[in-house]
Structures are given as C-alpha cells and as structure tokens.
Design a protein that fits this description.
CATH superfamily of the largest domain: Type I PLP-dependent aspartate aminotransferase-like (Major domain)
Order of helices and strands: HHEHEHEEEEEEEHHHHEEHEH
Number of strands: 12
CATH architecture of the largest domain: 3-Layer(aba) Sandwich
Shape: globular
CATH topology of the largest domain: Aspartate Aminotransferase, domain 2
Number of helices: 10
Distance between the termini: 20 Å
Structural class: alpha/beta
Number of domains: 2
C-alpha cells in the first residue's frame, strides 16, 4: 500500500498520462483480440496484411484532409530512423533547423551529415520558440510541430521568400492526430504512431507532397550512397504496394487503424483537435490558478495542446508528487529526463478524456495537501 492513498472517487479511471507510449482505448484492444490477432504470424506480402496497410494509408489521407497528390509513405523504425532516412535520401545542400528542445536538436544533428552543407540551426530556449527565416540557398526547412520534451508547439506554415525548390519538413510525432493543420503548408509531415494514434512503435509514417517525392526519386537516381534501409525511394515504392521493406509491426498497424477509424467516424481531425484543446486548457487553467504550479511555457501561443508541462514551486517536490501518483496507479507524469526541471509533464492526446484530466488535477491537489 502507498503511504498516501488517493481516494478512489477522485482518481482517474485510467491513470496513463505518458508522453512516450500513450494510453490505448479498451475498444482497440478488444478489436485486436477478436480480429487483429489472427493477422499475427502471417505474411506481410499477402492480401490480409497489405489490406491493413492500405486501410491505415487511406484513413490517414482522409484524416489529413486528402491533399491532392500527397501520399502516405511508411517504413520500418520510428522517427529516429526517419531522421536518418531524410538526411540520406531527401536532404540536399543546406538545411535550416528550428530547435527548441531535445527532438528538434536530434533532427538538426542528423542534417549535419558530411555529404550535406552545414545547416543553419536556430536555437531557442526550452519553453519558448523562435521562427524560421528565409535564407538563400536553403533547400530544407525543418522544425518540430510539437516539441515533446518541453511542451512547445509551432504552427504548420510555410514562410515566404524562400528558394523555389525548398521543402518544408514537419516533425509531427506527438502532434499528428491531435492538432489540426493545413497539409498544403508542408511537404513532409512525418511521425511515429505511439502518441495520438494510440498505438505502438516500430514504424514511421510521412505525408509527402509531390515535390518531396520528386526530390527523393531524383536523389535516389544520383550517385549518392544510400543504404537500402535508409532509402526513401525504396519506402515509397513499397508503400505504393501497401507494404514495407521488412516485416512491419502488424499489431502497431492494427491498433493504429482502429484509432484512425475512431477519429474519422467522430468528426476527423477537427474533432480530435477540440478534444486535446479542452483537456490541455483545463491543465493550463488549473496551473495558472494554483498556489504552487505554473505553466512552464509562458507564452500561451507557444503552449502545446497535446503535451503540457507544469512547473512546481520550489517548496513542492514534483518528483515526490509523481512518486505518490505512480503508487496510486497514475503513471508517467514525470518530466522529460534531460530537461531537469521541478515539474510534471502530462500528455493530453486524443484518447484522453477531459474528465480524466480533471481527475488528475484533483489527485495532484490531494497529494500536495497530504505531503504538506
């Protein structure tokens, strides 16, 4: 038994609030038990699994407003793999990278490959963001739509006065499926499925514009050395056949397909966006009215609606609060490990109901009062 027992009537029914692997809905797991499990251990080159891949691709296109000429490309690995795919197969010349946290910095690092020009890196302070700026000779503008480590959001928007052949790359891993956007404002909208899509790891996905696909094909036809696993052209060709180079994560695909169908049936991305806005707004309002908590991201325009970071007063040990919550079944609200702040980090992904977040803040208030 934990030393502090949170009353059952105020505890969230589902205590998973992590920003890494996210909560799955019970209906997804039930569907996997009754339907998805029969696909496990079967060939990914045969119709049942290929149809599953097609279901996910078509569902994503519907969710992302069906932009003309764009394609859903997928491959083995996660977003970390895609950074290397992009540096080998899609980046050329010089890039400009907007960095305001850990994950933006990692993509910027991948773009410092020796066959590319040294990128321009615009470093903002964690908890805020700067802006991309037009720069002659830049072929790739890259930024995180949602910085998972800090809870900072950036708009999906092209900037004016860039070179005509420049492409825009949006790291959407923790934003995709939870924040509405105009797909025509970017060329490569890439993500992994374990956040708003309430699935598991093992795959990356990218919504790609015709210009991005054309560049990938041109680079593939050049003399650049590209390992097959990092070949975007290989991923594009396989995606058009509703498959991946190596065996895909079938359970990941099935769970993701269930989540995409759930979103589209309830109103699509606008509906998902309204859910994450409501849940995150409650957390920010609670923190602003709390005697011991404040939003880490000071500028409301920079605050994420899917990853909420809350600073605690020095008199309150956020780690102790998280420890008590975990002992009571409320898990994964610890801060990002490399940020090193006295704070909690809470995911408000699409599968999280507002009522659960309200129960979370009630539980935090109770724990703080008990800790004295």
């Amino acid at each position: 038994m934990p030393e502090i027992v949170i009353p059952a009537e105020i505890l969230p029914a589902d205590g998973r609030f992590g920003c890494g692997p996210s909560r799955l809905r019970a209906a997804q797991l039930q569907a996997f038990h009754s339907e998805g499990a029969r696909l496990m251990g079967t060939s990914h080159r045969q119709a049942p699994v290929k149809n599953l891949v097609k279901r996910v691709q078509n569902g994503l296109l519907d969710l992302f407003h069906s932009p003309d000429g764009y394609e859903i490309v997928l491959g083995n690995g996660g977003s970390t793999a895609f950074w290397d795919v992009a540096s080998h197969s899609l980046a050329e010349g010089k890039a400009q990278a907007l960095v305001h946290g850990e994950f933006g910095a990692k993509f910027a690092g991948a773009l410092a490959a020796p066959w590319l020009e040294k990128p321009t890196v615009i470093n903002g302070e964690p908890g805020a963001r700067l802006e991309l700026k037009p720069e002659a000779g830049v072929k790739s503008y890259v930024y995180p739509q949602n910085e998972t480590s800090t809870g900072v959001v950036a708009p999906v928007k092209r900037i004016a006065s860039v070179d005509s052949d420049a492409l825009f790359f949006t790291d959407a891993t923790s934003a995709a499926g939870g924040i509405d956007f105009d797909p025509l404002e970017t060329d490569v909208y890439y993500f992994a499925p374990q956040k708003n899509f309430a699935s598991d790891g093992g795959l990356w996905f990218a919504l790609m514009s015709p210009a991005a696909i054309a560049r990938a094909e041109r680079i593939a036809a050049s003399d650049r050395y590209i390992p097959e696993f990092l070949s975007l052209k290989t991923a594009i060709d396989n995606s058009r056949l509703n498959q991946t180079l190596n065996t895909p994560a079938i359970a990941t695909l099935f769970l993701m397909g269930e989540q995409i169908d759930w979103m589209n049936q309830n109103g699509g991305l606008a509906w998902a966006d309204s859910r994450t806005k409501a849940a995150s707004a409650h957390l920010y309002d609670w923190a602003e009215n709390s005697p011991f908590a404040t939003p880490f991201v000071a500028n409301p325009e920079h605050r994420s609606q899917v990853v909420v970071t809350i600073d605690f007063d020095a008199s309150i040990d956020a780690a102790a609060v998280a420890k008590v919550l975990r002992a009571n079944g409320v898990v994964d609200v610890e801060p990002y490990r490399k940020l090193g702040r006295n704070q909690l980090r809470v995911a408000t992904f699409t599968a999280t109901d507002l009522a659960e977040v309200q129960a979370l803040t009630a539980s935090i208030d109770y724990v703080v009062s008990e800790l004295g």
